[in-house]
Design a protein that fits this description.
Blueprint lengths: L1 E3 L4 H21 L5 H20 L1 E3 L9 E3 L4 E11 L5 E10 L6 E3 L4 E9 L11 H4 L2 E7 L5 E8 L5 E4 L6 E2 L4 E6 L2 E7 L4 E2 L6 E2 L5 E4 L1
Antiparallel strand pairs: 1-2, 3-16, 4-5, 4-15, 5-13, 6-12, 7-8, 7-11, 8-9, 9-13, 10-12, 14-16
Helix pairs in contact: 1-2
Length: 219
């Protein structure tokens, strides 16, 4: 089942009235219907279709599993490497990054169950989200969850060149469930995961993943 995300309605309504206004203005200035008019109408309908489609919010029901970390986003795996995580852990972690193109679902989900121990919204740049430096330099949110087994994982919602707004429902000390909605990033972005060094990664570079369905790693 797919519905429209609540964050999308203001944008959808605004774009609708903007397109209608453009059509009315064009018809006032150029009342005779020409090929240009029909191209304009078709282009407007196609554009509006993709705006509405962008805010689709699929319902994905899962059975939480404390032994796995699921993908928090739809997209393609662009990074799998060992890195020094300097914002919270201050030590080496395994990083897995998923890039979301404008055609992907942009709703995000919690990759594991537990208590939110850390939350921060960082203002920054808007580099292309598929580039490594976007993880440290772009507009982003950082969330750390402590699982029931006292393991901690960190993940980030990262804005990209087009994506300029991150909506995140995380709050410190909040109890969350794996697969619960985390938020949404508007118009192209990236989702980073930082996992314990002994985690077993279950995906490969270039693999397409599905939020709430694809297992990223196992503890």
């Amino acid at each position: 089942m797919v519905k429209i995300h609540k964050e999308g309605y203001p944008v959808i309504v605004l774009v609708f009235f903007l397109l209608i206004s453009i059509v009315i203005l064009i018809n006032i200035l150029f009342p005779d219907q020409t090929l240009f008019h029909y191209i304009l109408y078709i282009s407007g309908m196609v554009f509006y279709f993709f705006v509405v489609r962008f805010f689709r919010n699929p319902i994905r029901e899962i059975t939480p599993d404390k032994n796995v970390i699921i993908s928090g986003a739809d997209g393609k795996v662009v990074v799998i490497e060992n890195v020094f995580e300097k914002e919270y852990f201050q030590k080496n972690m395994k990083q897995v990054s998923v890039f979301m193109s404008p055609t992907n679902v942009h709703v995000n989900w919690f990759p594991a169950s537990g208590i939110i121990k850390f939350f921060r919204h960082n203002h920054g740049s808007y580099f292309i989200a598929s580039k490594p430096k976007s993880s440290d330099e772009n507009e982003r949110t950082t969330i750390v969850i402590e699982t029931p087994d006292k393991k901690e994982i960190l993940f980030r919602q990262i804005a990209g060149t087009v994506a300029r707004r991150i909506v995140c429902y995380a709050k410190e000390n909040k109890q969350v469930t794996q697969g619960e909605e985390l938020g949404i990033i508007k118009f192209g972005s990236r989702f980073d995961l930082f996992l314990p060094p002994d985690s077993k990664i279950e995906v490969e570079i270039g693999q397409k993943v599905c939020g709430c369905k694809t297992i990223i790693a196992r503890f």
